[in-house]
Amino acid sequence: MSIADRVRVKHVELLSKRRYELKSATFDYRRANGEWQTQVREVYDRGNGAALLPYNLTTRCVVLVRQFRFPAFANGYDDLLIEVAAGMLDDAEPEARIRAEAEEEIGYRLAHVRKVFEAFTSPGAVTEKLHCFVAEYDAAMRIGDGGGLADEGEDIEVLELAIDDALAMISDGRIVDAKTIMLLQYAALHLFR
Ligand SMILES: Nc1nc2c(ncn2[C@@H]2O[C@H](COP(=O)(O)OP(=O)(O)O[C@H]3O[C@H](CO)[C@@H](O)[C@H](O)[C@@H]3O)[C@@H](O)[C@H]2O)c(=O)[nH]1
Ligand SMILES: [Mg+2]
After folding, report:
1. Is the pLDDT reported for residue 29 higher than 90?
2. CB within 6 Å of ligand 1 — which residues?
3. What's residue 173's pLDDT?
């Protein structure tokens, strides 16, 4: 099913373009009752991304990262964020990008990675679609310390946590990142039983 016949884009204005693009779109939308309504929406386009939860069924552990996120800090979160490893695609294929991020951010060279779902992370304002992966890992796959690219400002700590502890950290507010919550809950439902 297409909804293209319900949308007529009339005007798109570029508001800002430094590293990424912020636009304002004016469009007509045909409402459920058939009436056309003009709307204006700001749209932030940073491209798409990929995220990964490595898991080990024998040790019942997962690998996460901890890093500073200025937008969360600006919104009152006074701590480093605990997240899954993730990166922006920069036009690469999601699987290739997430394998590279796993090496850069957590220092693991993974064997099989498996996409489990795609998710729009903030569809009212941001175009981003996130490709979410899981992968089995073990100690033999560790090839380095991870940590990210210091010259891009990354300063990433690698955390290996028991899945039960990570799930408890969602409940008590120590994990507040959406993609991380989604992947941990996926793991609880489908991987660790
Ligand atoms: N100079 C500059 N650097 C930026 C800016 N925005 C991001 N960066 C830098 O660009 C790099 C992007 O690193 P990635 O690992 O590719 O991306 P990410 O920030 O981890 O993104 C992941 O998480 C985001 C938040 O959940 C997701 O939005 C994204 O899709 C991806 O999953 C980081 O070094 C980051 O600091 C900016 O406006 N200016
Ligand atoms: Mg990243």
Report:
1. yes
2. 19, 49, 51, 86-88, 101, 128, 130, 152-154, 179
3. 96
Counted domains in the chain: 2
Residues 40 and 62 in one domain: no
Q: What is the pLDDT of residues 141-187, one digit of tens each?
A: 999 999 998 998 999 999 999 999 999 999 999 999 999 999 999 99
Residue 30 has a pLDDT of 98
What does pTM read for this prediction? 0.96
Boundaries of domain holding 169: 49-191
CATH assignment at residue 128: 3.90.79.10
Q: CA 18, CA 149: separation in Å to the nearest integer?
A: 21
Closest CA to 52 of 103, 92, 91: 103
Taking the alpha carbons of 121, 97, 107, 110 in that order, is the dihedral positive or negative? positive
Rounded distance from Cα 5 to ligand 2 centre (Å): 37
Taking alpha carbons only, the member of 84, 132, 131 closest to residue 106 is 84
Residue 193, token pair as written in the block: 């039983």
Distance 60 CA to ligand 2 centre (A): 24
Same structural domain for residues 70 and 165? yes
